[in-house]
Specification:
The chain has 483 residues and is α+β, with helices and mostly antiparallel strands. The chain has three domains: 42-164, 2-Layer Sandwich (Beta-Lactamase); 259-340, no CATH class; 349-482, no CATH class. 52% of the residues lie in helices and 18% in strands. It has helices at 2-38, 40-55, 58-61, 65-75, 112-118, 208-215, 256-302, 318-376, 380-405, 414-428, 449-470, and strands at residues 81-85, 91-94, 123-127, 137-145, 151-160, 178-183, 188-191, 217-223, 229-238, 242-249, 412-413, 436-442, 446-447, 476-482. The protein has a five-stranded antiparallel beta sheet, with helices on both faces. A five-stranded antiparallel beta sheet has the order 7-6-10-9-8. A two-stranded antiparallel sheet has the order 11-13. Helix 1 (2-38) packs across helix 7, helix 9 (380-405) runs antiparallel to helix 11 and helix 10 runs parallel beside helix 11 (449-470). It starts with a helix and ends with a strand.
Length: 483
């Protein structure tokens, strides 16, 4: 029954979700467009300022820079100042009186907006510092470049915030809408009604800017200081520096978006829940408890214990018995396979130890033959050469002896190997001269067999040279350190 009613419930859910999403998207788009419309005059002012600054390239100003900029400010509405900033942040020329430079436009070497232009940004819009020469203004700056693309300072326009006041007289805006402009940190620059953009309980409205920067726009709902629930929509006007924010009363509780899901979902949901409860009661008694039992058995198998068998499932329904039988066969197959692998590894280990043992014996035979030949020689250099060769072969034989005597034939303990090798080398020369004491200070490291041979041969050469040249006539103490 539950499965029969499930498609109806799913279709109702899909339809409701689609309708709800469509209305939400439509309202979101409407709010975003309304936000952009409310700030259309501000955007037009910023666009025209950007075009003006692009046209006022440093080369186009010429020697009469200041008079031309002053004339432009006088003829154009919405500008309080125009500036040409050098690559070092100093004002080359400015419109109007020079004391206006103290407004925060220059010197600009350490200003954040100037550093952003220096680092490659084409346009920066920031608020002029409070308490400077301008009261409530924006700094609009564009990057100036030389013909090869090298940074050549900036062209700056100062626009009063009064010229960017949002327009909420458009009849296309939602009823009761208010608009504001914010900076890149979400701080209100100018607003048609500042109280609307102050949230209740002291919440900060600035958090929406991060979402707008990542997604291009942001829509959220909050309560203002008068405890009225309102929708807010924001969109970028000038990159990540200036945003338009619109606020409109939120839909009431009787809106379609809240009432329609009730009528669409509750009836199918009630029927489905009733059928689902009946099915769950029966399935729990017939299947679920047996599936839980098989799950516990499988968890035991996952921990490597295959001796447990699902014997209780013999009283379960046929399907459960089939699954239990499959688990039992799987556990038996894994047990047999593990036993075979263990036996194969043990056999391989024994064979490798036998190989190492035989190689060691063969090397010892060769060493013995060389020793016999050495004793038969009378030429001292020849005897010394055979003695060195015999020591090298004995060192190699010691490698294989160490491997087949160790617990793990894949590695050798560096401390044990070096102790035996140094002792072997020193004892071989013990009866031919003064006493040489030896000591080995080595870490207990696991060394790969492939690295033991060069290590052993190197140590043979080092100890032999020490015996020949350092301890030849006086003896001494040989210390070997290995880290």
């Amino acid at each position: 029954m539950a499965m029969a009613l499930l498609p109806i419930f799913v279709l109702s859910l899909i339809q409701t979700q689609a309708d709800f999403r469509r209305q939400a998207e439509d309202r979101q788009v409407d709010l975003q467009l309304a936000a952009e419309r409310s700030a259309s005059s501000a955007k037009a002012q910023l666009d025209s300022a950007q075009v003006l600054l692009r046209a006022l390239s440093p080369d186009a100003l010429g020697p009469y820079c200041a008079p031309r900029l002053t004339a432009l400010v006088g003829r154009l509405e919405g500008y309080e100042g125009l500036y040409r900033i050098s690559p070092t942040g100093e004002a080359v020329c400015a419109s109007g009186r020079t004391d206006g430079l103290r407004s925060g436009v220059a010197p600009a070497a350490q200003a954040t907006w100037f550093q952003r232009l220096r680092n490659g940004e084409e346009l920066v819009v920031v608020r002029a510092p409070d308490g400077a020469g301008y009261q409530g203004a924006l700094i609009v700056a564009t990057r100036a470049e030389r013909p090869m693309g090298r940074f050549d300072g900036a062209m700056v326009a100062v626009i009063p915030l009064s010229a960017l006041q949002p327009d909420i007289g458009d009849p296309a805006l939602p009823s009761g809408a208010e608009a504001a402009l914010t900076d890149g940190a979400g701080r209100i620059l100018t607003a048609s009604d500042p109280d609307v953009f102050k949230l209740a309980d002291g919440d900060d409205i600035a958090g929406w800017v991060a979402r707008a920067r990542d997604q291009g726009s942001a829509v959220f709902e909050a309560k203002d200081v008068q405890n009225h629930r309102r929708d807010y929509a924001g969109a970028a006007l000038a990159g990540g520096d200036l945003y338009a924010l619109l606020s409109a009363p939120a839909p009431g509780l009787l809106s379609w978006a809240r009432l329609n899901p009730i009528g669409t979902l509750l009836l199918p949901l009630g029927a489905w829940l009733t059928a689902f409860a009946a099915v769950m009661l029966l399935s729990e008694r017939i299947f679920i408890r047996w599936l839980d039992y098989l799950e516990r058995v499988a968890a035991i198998y996952a921990r490597g214990r295959f001796s447990v068998r699902p014997l209780q499932a013999m009283n379960a329904p046929a399907e459960i018995r089939t699954m239990a039988r499959t688990l039992d066969e799987m556990a038996e197959a894994i047990t047999v396979r593990d036993r075979e692998l263990t036996d194969a590894l043990a056999e391989k280990d024994a064979l490798m130890r036998e190989i190492h043992h035989r190689v060691k014996n063969n090397l010892q035979i060769i060493s013995s033959l060389l020793s016999m030949q050495q004793r038969a020689l009378t030429d001292a250099p020849a005897k010394a050469a055979l003695g060195d060769t015999r020591q090298r072969i004995s060192a190699l034989a010691l490698i294989y002896r160490t491997l087949y005597q160790s617990n793990d034939i894949r590695h050798a303990d560096a401390r044990e190997f070096l102790n035996e090798l140094v002792g072997q080398l020193v004892s071989s020369e013990a009866g031919r001269g003064p006493v040489v004491l030896s000591s080995v200070d080595a870490d207990s490291l696991h060394v790969d067999p492939d690295k033991l041979a060069p290590l052993a041969l190197w140590l043979v050469e080092a100890v032999t040279n020490a015996q020949k040249h350092a301890f030849a006539g006086s003896g001494g103490e040989l210390k070997v350190r290995f880290r």
